[in-house]
Amino acid sequence: MKNIIDEQKVRAVAKLSRLDLTDDEVAAFSRQLSAILEYVEKLNELDTTNVEPLAHCLPISNIFREDKIKESLGVEKTLANAPQRDGDFFKVPKILDDSSGA
Amino acid sequence: MSDELLDLNCKELRDEIAAGRVKSNAATEAVFEQIDNYEGKVGAFLSTFKKQALAQAKQVDDKIASGGPVGALAGVPVAVKDNMCTTFGATTCASKILENFHAPYNATVVEKLLAADAVIVGKTNLDEFAMGSSTENSGLKKTVNPWDPGRVPGGSSGGSAAAVASRMCFAALGSDTGGSIRQPASFCGAVGLKPTYGRISRFGLVAYGSSLDQIGPVTRTVADTALILNVITGHDQKDSTSVSEQIAPVCDYLEKIDESPKGLKIGIVPQLNEGAEQNVQKAIGKALEVYKNSGAEIIEIAMPHFDYAIAAYYLIATAEASSNLARYDGVHYGYRTPRPNDYIEVYSKSRAEGFGGEVKRRIMLGTYALSSGYYDAYYLKALKVRNLIRGDFTKAFESCDCVMMPVSPTTAFKIGEKIDDPLQMYLSDVYTIAANLAGVPAISVPCGFDGDNLPIGLQILTPAFTEDKLLRIARIYESQNQWHLKKPAVIK
């Protein structure tokens, strides 16, 4: 089996995906994703030079509606599932470092 | 009495209730008795709503007693896959990351069920975020196959199929991104329909692969599928991919269900069918005989790109998933890691702790396929192949009314058999994925049993927005067989 996606690449993709993986997961994903990617290489058997990509199958595009204000969820319903809230806000840890002067 | 009630199909029950001969309360009580007796063995539900369901049933009974009009599903107990939003109970997607999520609105299909006077008894188990083919990827519960508790119910709508098969509801909604309605229906001996992409609103369906996902019914009969389709189908302003009824008119799918299409031409791809297990091939062959004997013509067709469907699908679906699941950030809703060291860890640890293995694997694969330097080779290539696969269908439907093939190459496999080999699990979707890529409707109809008394499903596919014809074709077979009336081992 080809090692198409080595552990270093797995870690890079995990960072893009915002997933903290364990070392065991990194090793397993390297192995499993390589097997899957090796399988999907069969797509290269097909010549797709003049084929348009098909993102979806519907005979529709650019769906518009009237620009009218509609009822929205409201603050309480919106915040009802918040892991942490502070008044009418979602609460998260500090994003900016105090020392940066930003 | 309760057994007799539970043996009625949706349509029969609806008719009995609407005529005042049976109380919805009695049917709902019977369903909950069944749940009390068998849910411990089957594990189909993530939540049940007995009190609310009995209250709904009473409302319907009262309406009927006072002579008021009632909806198309008057008093019929149904279940909903737990990736559709409900304002009652949680909407978990069988994921730890949404274990305590309470949706602020109902999915459009849920609103439509309620408006049709259906009684919602519970929400069913699934592979986490509908990613899987066995329901083993549920982060919250194990569901077994009612025909053999050592085997999987199929997936990802395994809970819906198992609940319908074990008569813990009269019908259920599932969702199908690559076979997730049809394959579990096939494994559990039920009827399962994936409608045309765009036929049914996906508003309130938790997104997995947005260009592929479609909601559909799991039922015991083809007529029941038509009945549920009548209720949930149609355009919805809240879903821009739900197709205008001017482009694709809806009709009463039940009305002409017993009118067999005349001069039916059925396309088969012999090499494809040969990829299935012997007993599956045999059952499909016998089903084709039934059609032949009722006057249909069987023609051989070629679908040269069908074999590439799995490869294209697992790039497109995972790419879409990696984007859709970016919303689980530990900030707005869902699980947040208890002690993040910084804001980045709010994302990366919450996601690492909240998602299960298969979800992480698909996010990783999709992110890779979309990442700089690989986009053209993987994602774009897959979209082009998708076009070729759709072309196969367009061409096929020039010479035949429908295509028939197995739903799955095997009957229900053993629990644990494929869970450690993701690629093997993916390959089990070989017959179902193409319909999602091409956006066409496809149905699974029970067509016999293998030597271990496990159900086999016949898959029928027709052109986009021809569900009426698809259901009538399926009904031809069902009307000449009793397979759909058999009861699984667990509830005997």
Q: Sketch the topology of chain A as an H/E string, one letter per element.
A: HHHEE
Radius of gyration of chain A: 23 Å
Q: Sheet bearing the most strands of chain A, described?
A: 2 strands, antiparallel
- Mean pLDDT of chain B equals 96
Q: Could you please describe the fold and organization of this structure?
A:
The complex is a heterodimer of chains A (102) and B (492). Chain A is mainly alpha-helical and 102 residues long. Chain A has a domain of 39 residues: Histone, subunit A (Orthogonal Bundle). Chain A is built from three helices and two strands, in the order H-H-H-E-E. Chain A has a two-stranded antiparallel sheet. In chain A, strand 1 and strand 2 form a beta hairpin. In chain A, helix 1 crosses helix 2. The longest helix of chain A has 18 residues. The radius of gyration of chain A is 23 Å and the shape is flat. Chain B is of the alpha/beta class and 492 residues long. Chain B has a domain of 292 residues: Amidase signature (AS) domain (Amidase signature (AS) enzymes, Alpha-Beta Complex), CATH 3.90.1300. Chain B is 39% helix and 12% strand. An eleven-stranded mixed beta sheet of chain B has the order 1-3-2-4-6-5-10-11-9-7-8, with helices on both faces. The longest helix of chain B is centred in the last third of the chain and has 24 residues. Chain B is globular. Chain B starts with a helix and ends in a 14-residue tail after the last helix. The mean pLDDT of chain B is 96. Classes of the chains: A mainly alpha (102), B alpha/beta (492). The interface between A and B is large, with 52 and 69 residues.
